[in-house]
Amino acid sequence: MAGATAEILLPNLSLEERASWESTVAAGSTTRKGTDFWIPPSDDPSGEPLPFFWDTSDDRADGWVFEGAEGATQAIQDAYGFMPRASIIVGAMCSGRPSDQILARLCSAFLTSHQGILLFDGLLTPRLDASSWFAWNRLTPGVRAARFLEALGPFVGRIVAVPVEGQPASHAVDAEFLRFWQRHAAFHFVK
């Protein structure tokens, strides 16, 4: 079962930053094969290691872009003060809170010492039961992004809804918000 993915957006990805990311991964993993790695769950270090992967995008002189996201790069530059030109994509090859916690821990450790932000693979949501999920998904992306912030309550750090084709599509957060989010009762990554 595939799990959550996220993208660390960076002004560039130097050899030192790549080595730092590899060290971050190596510090917690029990096994590594290329860019695949396994890490035991945070709540059970003796438990079966969970599988993850990572990849990078090349530095792009014209900035980071993905299809339909002409406004995304500008929104990130306006909010965070840099144009993303490179990224580290990290994902879980399993699903659930333990793998989400590991993703958050890895990304937070890297972002704490490097200029960059985390782009979730969609908009964050409050915890919803099955009966609320259908109604939530009928809301427009802009309303969902606003309601998430209302449900979140007071927070620290920065969170920005990044647009695709004029509608909020993903949340981008700084390291401070990511640390806050890890401790929040509704914590999860977007899958």
What can you tell me about this protein's structure?
This protein has 191 residues and is α+β, with helices and mostly antiparallel strands. It has one domain. It has helices at 15-28, 70-80, 97-112, 130-138, 141-152, 175-183, and strands at 5-10, 31-33, 36-39, 50-57, 86-92, 117-120, 159-164, 167-173. The protein has an eight-stranded antiparallel sheet. α3 packs antiparallel against α6. The N and C termini lie close together (11 Å).
Shape: globular
> Structural class, please?
alpha+beta
What integer value in Å does the Rg equal? 16 Å
What is the string of SSEs from the N terminus onward?
Answer: EHEEEHEHEHHEEH
Helix content: 25-40%
Parts with pLDDT < 50 across at least 5 consecutive residues: none
Mean pLDDT: 88
Largest sheet: 8 strands, antiparallel
Query: Please, how many helices?
Result: 6
Termini separation:
11 Å
Strand content: 15-25%
E-strand count: 8
